[in-house]
Automatic annotation (TrEMBL):
Catalytic activity: FMNH2 + NAD(+) = FMN + NADH + 2 H(+)
UniProt cross-references to NCBIfam families, sorted A to Z: RutF (TIGR03615)
Entry EC number(s): 1.5.1.42
Pfam name, any one: Flavin_Reduct
Name this protein carries in UniProt: FMN reductase (NADH) RutF
GO terms assigned for molecular function: FMN binding; FMN reductase (NADH) activity; riboflavin reductase (NADPH) activity
Coiled coil: none
């Protein structure tokens, strides 16, 4: 069997579309946030999702200590915010670029997100370079927007909500 190299894996994964999310935390270790597409549902009983986070990321120690996070799923038009949280911009500048509320766990909840999932991290599993954070949802805020934002083929794309 042929070994799969990193570039082959990344190129193939670029063909898998995913929602764009800003993951935030706040607590004793401070406030932090990053952009992620590696988010998915796990189960609805109890309501749980997972988030993948590289252990080499500058935000990893903050999330690891706070043990709470909010997954903010972005709407179309929030691409610049995604880029800001995906770069090397200082945390204060990232958070100053949008309006936030405080969620049930104390984590920042993005105003205007399609949905925000306020969570406690209940389990962490390490795989390769990343930690998989299993997150039990404490509260959900849903703001249906006419258009969603997805990442596919290394570009942003808009998904239109069908008319009812």
């Amino acid at each position: 069997m042929m070994a799969i190299n990193q570039q082959t894996f990344r190129d193939a994964m670029a063909c898998v579309g995913a929602a764009v999310n800003i993951i935030t935390t706040d607590g004793d270790a401070g406030q932090a946030g990053f952009t992620a597409s590696a988010v998915c549902s796990v189960t609805d009983s109890p309501p749980t999702l997972l988030v993948c986070l590289n252990r080499a990321a500058s935000v990893w120690p903050v999330f690891n200590q706070n043990r709470a996070l909010c997954v903010n799923t972005l709407a179309a038009g929030q691409e610049s915010l995604s880029n800001l949280f995906g770069g090397k911009t200082a945390m204060a500048e990232r958070f100053a670029a949008a309006q936030w509320q405080t969620g049930e766990t104390g984590c920042p909840r993005l105003e205007g997100a399609l949905a925000s999932f306020d969570c406690h991290i209940t389990q962490v599993v390490s795989v390769g370079t990343h930690d998989i954070l299993f997150c039990e949802i404490q509260a959900i805020v849903h703001h249906p927007a006419p258009e969603g934002l997805v990442w596919f083929n290394r570009h942003y794309h808009t998904l239109m909500r069908p008319a009812c």
